[in-house]
Amino acid sequence: MTPHLEEITPRTFEAAVGIRVRPDQEHAVEPVERSLAEAYVHPAGVAWPRLILDGSRPVGFLMAFLDIDWYGDGSARRSGLWRLNIAAGEQGRGYGRFAVAAVGSEIRRRGGSELYVTWHPGADGPEDFYLRLGFRKNGETSGGQTVGVLGLG
Predict the structure, then answer these.
(1) Model's pTM, two decimal places?
(2) 117 contacts 135 by C-beta, under 8 angstroms
(3) Among the residues of the chain, which ranges form H helices?
């Protein structure tokens, strides 16, 4: 496995929008098209969308949020994983773990010390995945989703 990230460009756009999670996961994560639309409407530098490739094979998509005003009142700035879509046939091969580590590296590079994530609660959501990676629930919810945080120290 030689995963790496590539910026979404006209050259990588079709590969990115071709990423589809398993049908039973579609309720828990937005499709790549919506993520790219959201990236487009936010101020430059807030959204960090990337295609996950293994060699030249597209295996997933991630989008980070960088240094956002979490509450909208200036009291807390946070960075983290906004979206993670691993292709249905590529799950269970370490690409999700790679994606989380890559976002953590980018946040550290920018001077951050914590990685936030939200997830769809319930037995069919990705909670176990995030908890196994060391995220801890911080008692908050955002848009009906559980908020988790991982120290990058």
Answers:
(1) 0.94
(2) yes
(3) 13-17, 32-41, 95-109, 127-132
Long-range contacts of 67-72 (CB under 8 A, 24+ apart): 67/110, 67/112, 70/116
Let me know how long the chain is. 153
Give residue-wise pLDDT tens across range 46-103: 999 999 999 999 999 999 999 999 999 999 999 999 999 999 999 999 999 999 999 9
How do residues 95-141 score in pLDDT, each as one tens digit?
999 999 999 999 999 999 999 999 999 888 899 999 999 999 999 99
Question: Strands 114-119, 145-151: parallel, antiparallel or unpaired by DSSP?
Answer: antiparallel
Residue among 128, 127, 93, 100 nearest 115 (CA): 100
